[in-house]
Design brief:
- By secondary structure, the protein is α/β, with parallel strands linked by helices.
- The chain is built from 37 helices and 49 strands.
- The strands form ten sheets. Strands 6, 7, 8, 11, 12, 13, 14, 17, 18 and 19 form a ten-stranded mixed β-sheet that branches. Strands 39-40-38-41-42-37-43 form a seven-stranded parallel β-sheet, sandwiched between helices. Strands 23, 24, 25, 27, 28 and 29 form a six-stranded mixed β-sheet that branches.
- Helix 7 runs antiparallel to helix 8 and helix 14 crosses helix 15.
- The longest helix is centred in the last third of the chain and has 25 residues.
- About 5% of the residues have low confidence.
- This is SNF2 family N-terminal domain protein.
C-alpha cells in the first residue's frame, strides 16, 4: 500500500471495538490531526503512530492482509490496560488508516523513525508505572456548588468454610437516601474510572465527574476497592498479558472475592473505622457484627460417652476467618486476637472443623489430660464431667536436678516429684497411680520442657543419668541453660561441683610503684585466680575461646571484651609463664601506657603509688611542671613553645624520649635551643644535633641568634677536618652539630661516646630502618633522645616504629612483632582495637600542634588548583606516549609481576609527567610549546606586577632550568636553589630573598622542601604534583610559618587530560585518610598499591 491508497476498513468494524464515548473522542482526535508519525512496516499490515492525548502515546494496529479486519491493537495509555475495547487513541489511528493517510517505512528523504516497543525489563517497569500513575493521582473536585450529594457504600460480608477451605467475598450497596445492590462490580469499576455515568435505578445515576463518596467508611471502602482493582491489573500485567483484557478473577458479578491478604486488609479497615457491618456466615442469617480488640470467653465441655470422651464447643458460634486465626468470629463479634492466643486456639478449631464436637478414645484420655488439656486451658474454660474426676487425678510437677562432673563434662540425674511420689524418669518404675488410687495424670509438657534442655546441649542417657562428655558443650549448658533450668527445677550440686560453676572474670588489681632505680615494680591480684591460671585465662582469650576452665573444674566466661586490655598489658610485659611474675620490673616508659589502659579498661584496677602518680601527671601535663625557661628567652617563647620546652624537659628528667611533631613553621628549633640552654651544665657531656646538610648551618645561625652563650660546634668538612673538630668539641662544646651523611661515615667516632641528649632534625631521614643512616644513629648513646619532624609518618607505620626504635629501643618491640601486632591489623583490617592500643603506647611521647590551633595571628592560606590545556603538538606527543605506556605497563606486569616492576613502572610514569610539564624535558627537537609553561608566564607576570613574591617548586631540576630561561626572556630576576647548591650559599640566598633581593625563587622540591624559612614570599606555585601531598605541604610551609605577615596563596598547576589529574585525585584521597596515630588533620599515607597505579593508566 502507498500513500493515498484506500484501506477497505469499515466504520462499523472500528465502532464495534469501542464504546460510544471512546469512538466519538477517537473520531474527534482524527479530525483534530492528533495522529503523527504514522508509518506502515514494509511487507506487513502493522501500523505504528504517535497519538497526542494528555501526553504522547504510542499506538500499534495490525490488520489482515485484505485490510478489512482488525486483528490486534495496543496503546501505551492507561486505559488500554484497564478497560475492554479500543481506546480513543486506537480509534483515531484506525480512522487515519481508513483514510489512507500513511507512508511506507523508509519512504521520503526525511521519514520519521517508527516506534518500536523496547523489550527490556527496565522499559516494562517504567511503562507499568506510567500506565497506572493516574490511579494514584488525587481526583480533581468540582466547585462545591456543582458537586452532588455524597454517595454511601455499604459492605455485606459473606463467609463459608467447606472441608477446611474458606471462601469469603463482599457485596456492596450504593446510594444516597436509598441503597441499591451493585450487580456488576467489574462494570462499576471500569465505568467509574473511565468517567462514564452509571445508572442503578430511576433515582440513582452516578456520574464519576461529579460524584463524591461520603467521608469516613465510604471513602475508605472506595480506596480499598481501588487498591484491589490496581492489584488485579498489576497481576495481569506482570503475568505477561500486555494489552490483555480483564477476565474478572477478583471482581465477578456482584461479588468482590477476598484473597487471604485482602480479607485481612478489609477487616483491619473496618476495625480502624470502628464501623459495624452486615455479615452472613455459613447457615447463619445475615446480622450486624463489629470488630473489637481482645480475646473472647470460650467455653468447652468434656463429657463421658461409654468410656470415651466427648469434647464439645459450648460457645454458640466460633470460627476463624483468616488462615492465621488472628480474626475470630464469636457469635456477633469479630475479635482481633493476639498472636499467642491465635496460635494456641488454631489447632483446636482446626480439629473441630465444621463440627461442634469430637471424640477422644478411652485409651487416649490420659494423654489428652496430660498434653492437650493444658494447651486448651490457655484459651478457654473447660468443664470436665465428674466421672472423669473420679477416675483420673491431675497432679502438678516439681523436679530436681543433681549435677556432678563426668570426666571433662558433666552428668545430671533427674528426679520428678508428684506430691509424695518421687521417681527417676530414666531409671526404675514409673508410677501409674496417684496415692488416692486414681490414674495419675502427669505434666507431659513440663517434663518435655526439662528434657529439652538436655537434648539441646547434646546430653545422652546413660545409667539413669544424662551425661555430656564434651567440655565445650558442658560450658554452654552451664552458662546458657542452667540459669533457665534453675527457674523450673531445683538444682543440687555434688561436693566436688561448685554452686557457681560458671564465673565471670573478676577485676584484676595491678599494683604499681616506682623504685629507686626508676623501674616499675608490678604485682597482680585476680581474686581467687592465681597468676599461673591468669596467664592461662588470657591465653584462652587470645585464642578467641569463649571460656577457660580452671583447675578446680569451674569455668570462666571470656565473652567480655574488657579482657582485651589486660591481655594487651600482660603481653607488653613479656611475661610468658607464672615464674616470670615473681618479681616483675618494667621500664618507666611503660607507666603511661599502663595508666591509659587502666582508665579505659574497667576490668583492670590500678593501685598506683604516689610517685607513679606524680610522674604520670608531670608527663601528661608539662605546663603544670615547675620548669622555668632561661631568662633570656622568656620574652621570646610563645605559650605553646613554653609547653614544648617543658614537655622536653620532663621527659628528659626521667630519661625518656619523644617526638616533637609540631606543624612546619612553629619553631621546633627554638624549643630545642631553649632546652639546650636550660640544661647546660659544667662537666656534662655535650648534646648532639643531627640534621640534613641543608639545615646544618641554619642550626648554628639560630643558636647564635637566640642563645649565643651556648658553645656550638659544627663537625663538617673532610674526614681529617671532622676528626680534628670533633675531639675538642667533645670536651668544650655544649652542642655538636653534624649531618646524617657525615654521621654515617664517622659512626666509629661517635658510637663510643655518651651524649647528654640527642636531637634528630627532620627525623623522617631514618624512617627506613634498613638505611645506613638509621643504623648509624641507633648506635648512639645518650641520657635521652628526641626526634623533630612534622611528618613522622609518610608512607607506613613502620616509619614510626623506626623512629621509636631510636628514641627508646625495645619499647615497641621488634619490627616483626610491631608489624604483626599493629601495622597489619591497622592498615589491612582497620582493627580499632589495634589502633587504640598503639595510641596508648605512642601518644604520651608525641607532641604535635598545628598552626591553626596555636597561631591565631597567622594570616590565611588559600589553596587553588589551576588547570591548563596542552598545546596541540603537546597533546599529540602525550597521546602517543600514553598509548605506548599502557602497552609497556601491561607487558611488564605480565612478564615480571607488580612487585618486581616498580622501578620500570616509575620510569614509564615519569615520562608521562614530564610531557605534562613540557615535552622538551626529554625530547631534544621538540618545539611545540608547553601549555603549563605558558600559564606560568601569565600568572607570574600578573603576580609580580601586583607586588607578589613567589616560590616556584618543581621536582624536575631540568624544568626549573626551562622556567629560568622563560623568566630571562621576561626580564625577571630570580634566585635558584637545588641539591647542588652548597649549604652556606643556600643560607645566603635565603637571606637575600627574604630581604627583598628578587621577586622569584626557583627551588627543587627535594632539596628545598624542608628546613628553609622563606617568609618573604606570599605566593607558592607547585609547578608539578608529587605523589605524596605531605611533601608539598612541607614545601608550602617554607613560606607559611612564624614570621609570615601576609596571606599566602598556594597554586597547584595541573595539566588537563593527563596523568597529573589522577595524581591530584590520589592526593585528595590520601588526605582524606586521617592519621589516627598522630593527631586529627595529619595525613596517613599508604604506599601506592597495584590498584592505584593501574588506575593511572586508565
Amino acid at each position: 500500500m502507498r500513500k493515498g491508497e484506500i484501506v477497505l476498513l469499515k466504520d462499523s468494524a472500528i465502532h464495534e471495538l469501542s464504546n460510544d464515548m471512546s469512538y466519538r473522542k477517537g473520531c474527534r482526535y482524527f479530525k483534530d490531526g492528533r495522529v503523527a508519525k504514522l508509518l506502515r512496516r514494509p511487507g506487513t499490515s502493522i501500523y505504528v503512530a504517535t497519538v497526542e492525548g494528555s501526553e504522547d502515546y504510542e499506538v500499534r494496529v495490525r490488520l489482515d492482509k485484505a485490510g478489512e479486519k482488525i486483528e490486534a491493537y495496543d496503546c501505551t495509555c492507561p486505559a488500554a490496560a484497564l478497560y475492554n475495547g479500543a481506546c480513543k487513541h486506537v480509534v483515531a489511528l484506525l480512522k487515519v488508516i481508513q483514510a489512507g493517510q500513511f507512508e511506507e517505512e523508509g519512504e521520503g528523504t526525511a521519514a520519521p523513525v517508527p516506534y518500536q516497543k523496547p523489550t527490556g525489563r527496565i522499559f516494562d517497569c517504567f511503562a507499568r508505572a506510567k500506565k497506572h500513575a493516574h490511579l494514584n493521582a488525587p481526583k480533581k473536585l468540582l466547585p462545591a456548588a456543582l458537586r452532588e450529594t455524597p454517595i454511601f457504600l455499604e459492605p455485606h460480608f459473606f463467609f463459608e468454610r467447606h472441608y477446611g477451605r474458606s471462601n469469603c467475598w463482599l457485596e456492596f450497596r450504593i446510594g444516597r437516601e436509598r441503597l441499591y445492590v451493585m450487580r456488576s462490580m467489574q462494570e462499576f469499576m471500569r465505568s467509574f474510572l473511565a468517567g462514564t455515568p452509571i445508572e442503578f435505578g430511576k433515582k440513582l445515576t452516578v456520574d464519576p465527574q461529579t460524584a463524591v463518596f461520603a467521608p469516613g467508611i465510604s471513602t475508605m471502602l472506595w480506596h480499598f476497592l481501588l487498591d484491589l482493582w490496581k492489584d488485579e491489573v498489576s497481576s495481569l500485567y506482570y503475568g505477561g498479558a500486555y494489552g490483555a483484557r480483564l477476565s474478572g478473577t477478583i471482581f465477578e458479578g456482584k461479588a468482590v472475592k477476598l484473597t487471604p491478604s485482602a480479607l485481612v486488609r478489609f477487616l483491619s479497615l473496618m476495625q480502624e473505622a470502628d464501623a459495624p457491618f452486615q455479615a452472613r456466615t455459613g447457615v447463619h442469617e445475615e446480622r450486624t457484627v463489629e470488630i473489637v480488640e481482645g480475646t473472647p470467653a470460650l467455653e468447652l465441655g468434656l463429657v463421658e460417652r461409654a468410656g470415651s470422651g466427648r469434647l464439645m464447643m459450648l460457645t454458640d458460634e466460633v470460627c476463624y476467618l483468616d488462615d492465621d486465626a488472628h480474626f475470630l468470629l464469636v457469635e456477633d463479634t469479630i475479635y482481633h486476637v493476639p498472636p499467642a492466643f491465635s496460635a494456641a486456639l488454631h489447632p483446636l478449631l482446626e480439629a473441630f472443623g465444621s463440627s461442634r464436637s469430637l471424640t477422644i478414645a478411652a485409651q487416649d484420655i490420659p494423654a489428652f489430660f496430660s498434653t492437650i488439656l493444658p494447651e486448651i486451658e490457655k484459651v478457654a474454660e473447660v468443664e470436665i464431667a465428674p466421672a472423669f474426676a473420679e477416675r483420673y487425678e491431675i497432679m502438678p510437677l516439681s523436679a530436681a536436678v543433681y549435677l556432678d562432673y563426668h570426666g571433662d563434662g558433666i552428668a545430671a540425674r533427674l528426679e520428678f516429684h508428684y506430691d509424695e511420689m518421687k521417681f527417676n524418669p530414666l531409671a526404675g518404675k514409673v508410677p501409674q497411680e496417684a496415692p488416692s488410687g486414681r490414674r495419675l495424670i502427669r505434666d507431659a509438657a513440663g517434663e518435655a520442657a526439662i528434657f529439652a534442655f538436655f537434648d539441646t546441649y547434646g546430653f545422652l542417657p546413660e545409667d539413669g543419668r544424662f551425661v555430656q562428655s564434651d567440655e565445650a558443650q558442658s560450658f554452654l549448658f552451664l552458662d546458657e541453660a542452667l540459669p533457665e533450668l534453675s527457674k523450673i527445677t531445683d538444682v543440687y550440686y555434688a561436693d566436688a561441683f561448685h554452686e557457681k560453676p560458671v564465673r565471670r572474670m573478676p577485676p584484676v588489681t595491678i599494683g604499681v610503684s616506682v623504685n629507686d632505680e626508676n623501674l616499675l615494680d608490678v604485682t597482680f591480684d585476680a581474686a581467687h585466680i592465681d597468676f599461673a591460671e591468669l596467664i592461662g585465662v588470657l591465653r584462652s582469650y587470645r585464642e578467641k575461646r569463649v571460656y577457660h576452665r580452671l583447675k578446680d573444674g569451674t569455668f570462666v566466661t571470656l565473652g567480655d571484651q574488657q579482657l582485651a586490655g589486660l591481655a594487651d598489658f600482660i603481653e607488653s610485659t613479656g611475661i610468658k609463664k607464672a615464674t616470670d611474675a615473681q618479681n616483675i620490673r618494667l621500664p618507666l616508659r611503660q607507666a603511661l601506657y599502663l595508666d591509659a589502659l587502666a582508665k579505659e579498661d574497667k576490668s583492670i584496677r590500678l593501685a598506683r603509688s604516689k610517685r607513679f602518680k606524680s610522674i604520670v601527671r608531670d608527663i601528661k601535663n608539662p605546663v603544670d611542671a615547675d620548669i622555668e625557661p632561661p631568662e633570656t628567652l622568656k620574652g621570646v617563647l610563645r605559650d605553646y613553645q613554653q609547653t614544648g620546652f617543658s614537655w622536653l624537659s620532663t621527659l628528659a628528667a626521667y630519661r625518656l624520649g619523644g617526638i616533637l611533631a609540631d606543624d612546619m613553621g612553629l619553631g621546633k628549633t627554638l624549643q630545642v635551643i631553649t632546652f639546650l640552654l636550660a640544661h647546660r651544665e659544667e662537666g656534662r657531656p655535650p648534646a648532639l644535633v643531627v640534621a640534613p646538610t641543608s639545615l646544618m648551618y641554619n642550626w648554628l645561625e639560630e643558636i647564635e641568634k637566640f642563645a649565643p652563650e651556648l658553645k656550638a660546634s659544627i663537625v663538617a668538612g673532610t674526614k681529617a677536618e671532622r676528626e680534628a673538630a670533633l675531639s675538642p668539641a667533645l670536651k668544650d662544646a655544649d652542642v655538636i652539630i653534624t649531618t646524617y651523611h657525615m654521621l654515617r661515615r664517622d659512626i666509629d667516632l661517635y658510637e663510643k661516646e655518651h651524649f647528654s641528649h640527642i636531637f634528630l632534625d627532620e627525623a623522617q631521614q631514618i624512617k627506613n630502618p634498613a638505611t645506613q643512616a638509621a643504623k648509624a644513629v641507633k648506635k648512639l648513646q645518650a641520657d635521652a633522645a628526641f626526634a623533630l619532624t612534622g611528618t613522622p609518618i609518610e608512607n607506613s607505620l613502620t616509619e614510626l616504629w623506626s623512629i621509636f626504635d631510636f628514641l627508646m629501643p625495645g619499647y615497641l618491640k621488634s619490627r616483626k612483632h610491631f608489624q604483626s601486632q599493629f601495622e597489619t591489623p591497622i592498615v589491612r583490617a582497620k582493627d580499632p582495637h589495634a589502633s587504640a592500643d598503639l595510641l596508648r603506647y605512642i601518644s604520651p611521647f608525641i607532641l604535635r600542634r598545628l598552626k591553626k590551633d596555636v597561631l591565631e595571628e597567622l594570616p590565611d592560606k588559600v589553596e587553588r588548583k589551576m588547570t591548563n590545556e596542552m598545546t596541540d603538538e603537546q597533546r599529540k606527543v602525550y597521546h602517543a606516549w600514553f598509548v605506548q605506556a599502557k602497552k609497556e605497563f601491561a607487558a611488564e606486569l605480565k612478564a615480571h609481576g607488580f612487585g618486581e616492576s616498580r622501578i620500570k613502572i616509575l620510569a614509564i610514569l615519569t615520562r608521562l609527567r614530564q610531557i605534562a610539564c613540557d615535552p622538551a624535558l626529554f625530547l631534544e627537537d621538540y618545539t611545540g610549546g608547553s601549555g603549563k609553561l605558558d600559564m606560568l608566564e601569565e600568572v607570574v607576570a600578573d603576580a609580580v606586577a601586583a607586588g607578589h613574591r613567589i616560590l616556584i617548586f618543581s621536582q624536575f631540576t631540568t624544568m626549573l632550568s626551562h622556567i629560568a630561561a622563560r623568566l630571562d626572556v621576561m626580564n625577571l630576576s630570580y634566585a635558584y636553589l637545588d641539591g647542588s647548591t652548597p649549604a652556606l650559599e643556600r643560607m645566603r640566598r635565603v637571606r637575600d630573598f627574604n630581604a627583598g633581593a628578587e621577586p622569584l625563587f626557583l627551588i627543587s622540591l627535594k632539596a628545598g622542601g624542608t628546613g628553609l624559612n622563606l617568609t618573604g614570599a606570599d605566593m607558592v606555585i607547585h609547578y608539578d604534583p608529587w605523589w605524596n601531598p605531605a611533601v608539598e605541604d612541607q614545601a608550602t610551609d617554607r613560606a607559611y610559618r612564624i614570621g609570615q605577615k601576609n596571606n599566602v596563596q598556594v597554586l597547584k598547576f595541573i595539566t588537563k587530560d593527563t596523568i597529573e589529574e589522577k595524581i591530584y585525585e590520589l592526593q585528595e584521597k590520601k588526605k582524606a585518610l586521617i592519621d589516627q596515630m598522630i593527631q586529627p588533620g595529619e595525613n596517613f599515607l599508604s604506599k601506592l598499591s597495584e590498584e592505584e597505579i593501574t588506575a593511572l593508566f586508565q
